[in-house]
Amino acid sequence: MSETFVIFVRELNSRVRTRAFWIGTLLAPVLTVAIFALQLIGGGSQRTLVVVNEASVQIGSNFIEALTAAPRSERSNSYRAELRDGPWDPQRAGLDADVLAERIDGYVVIPRDVLAKSEITYRARSSAGPTLLRELEAAALRATQQARSAAAGIPEAQLQELLRGVKVRAARLTPAGERADSTGLALLLVYLSAFLSYTIIVGYGVSILRSVLEEKTSRIAEVLLSSVTAARLLAGKLLGAAGAALVQVGMWAAMVAAVLGALLLVVDDTTGLQRALNTVDFPAAVWLSLLTFVMLGFLLYGSLFAAIGAAVTTEQEAQSLQTIGILPTLIPLMMGLRILEEPSGTFATVLSLVPFTSPITMPMRMVATPVPLWQIALALLLLLAGSAAMTWAAGKIFRIGVLSVGRKATPAELWRWVRKTI
């Protein structure tokens, strides 16, 4: 039996045959769904506000009427508002005291020149969230529109008809035909693909770092290297961790398929669910490409973390270098909205070609839009070359560093190790 295969089986078993692996595998989908569900079902709050009106009586009353109207959805806030006549300055100290004492949640000031400047003031103890700002702006817009329409002699009903909004029904064009598009679902899929890629690449990569460092400090590596070469030991570790990652992803895919299948059988009206599934109906080649990017990305970062584990001597050193190694993977996650808005733009395209960011960025782009075949091929080629180079360098560092106990390797020493022939 090959020495590499023996190490592979040992590393695979050490990860899969643990309670932590099974708990994480079973709980991760549940927690992910729960997080998104809590954001969707979370309702708005009730707020008590004071409105100081320095403008006309009509503007103040229209603002109160619009603000205290029935919430448009369960996630909208509801308001209890007290209208006070201006000016604001004599009342400011008392209102500030009421806010700080939590007798009211905040107060709004409608200035005398609101029609000219189109601006109101809001003061509260906490930062105004996007929902609150949107609702205050909507109420102010409604009040000022009514005042302007009255001044121009335009009936309210006619003004509302003129300002009636327009909905956009988006669709994606694919070689298989037109498919419905959903911005919310697209955003969810993009971040899920990024999260899955990040979990496999970073999570299992860091586990390799910990394994190498533990075997180095406990001198187990010396025993192992007496019967197997450093290259085969490293290859076995990488393959074992990759195998555990594939097992976990396979289980997640089976769980998702089982849940969706059950929903299609149990739910009577499956039109909405089937329409949603049609938006993620990607060819098998796309799924294979996504998996290839993730696995090559794992090989790249797994080799990097293995080299870090072999080069350091303490947990503190490993933590510092580990943080630096993780930073490139965070760029696509932090720039996810920009990638979704312009998946074919220059920024997203460059990130999807750079080996250290392509394992996460390219899956995000492929979920959001059809990516040209030449870009996928070029990104895979660059990632494959980067992974091969990193594995080669990590093998050299691993061979010497794993036996160098009690001595911190300097950058100059690491360079000398890489230059040596295995």
Looking at this protein, list some descriptive labels.
single chain; 422 residues; alpha/beta; D-Maltodextrin-Binding Protein, domain 2; 2 domains; 4-stranded mixed β-sheet; two-stranded antiparallel sheet; 6 strands
What count of domains describes the coordinates?
2
Number of strands: 6
Give helix and strand order, one letter per element, not per position.
Answer: HHEHEHEHEHHEEHHHHHHHHHHH
The helix content is 55-70%
Cα(first) to Cα(last) distance is 23 Å
Low-confidence stretches: none
Report the portion of residues in β strands. Answer: 5-15%
Q: Compute the number of helices.
A: 18
Largest sheet: 4 strands, mixed
Task: Round the mean pLDDT to the nearest integer and report it.
Answer: 79
- Alpha-beta content class: alpha/beta
The gist of it:
With 422 residues, this protein is α/β, with parallel strands linked by helices. 69% of the residues lie in helices and 8% in strands. A four-stranded mixed sheet has the order 2-1-3-4, with helices on both faces. Strands 5-6 form a two-stranded antiparallel sheet.
Notes on the structure:
The chain has 422 residues and is of the alpha/beta class. 69% of the residues lie in helices and 8% in strands. The chain is built from 18 helices and six strands. The strands form two sheets. Strands 2-1-3-4 form a four-stranded mixed β-sheet, sandwiched between helices. It is elongated and about 90 Å long. The mean pLDDT is 79.
List the helices and strands and how they pair.
Elements: H1 3-16, H2 19-41, E1 46-53, H3 57-67, E2 78-85, H4 89-100, E3 106-110, H5 114-117, E4 121-124, H6 130-152, H7 156-162, E5 171-174, E6 177-180, H8 183-217, H9 220-225, H10 230-266, H11 271-278, H12 284-311, H13 315-334, H14 336-341, H15 346-353, H16 358-368, H17 373-401, H18 411-419
Parallel strand pairs: 1-2, 1-3
Antiparallel strand pairs: 3-4, 5-6
Helix pairs in contact: 1-10, 3-6, 8-10, 8-12, 8-13, 8-16, 12-13, 12-16, 12-17, 15-16, 17-18
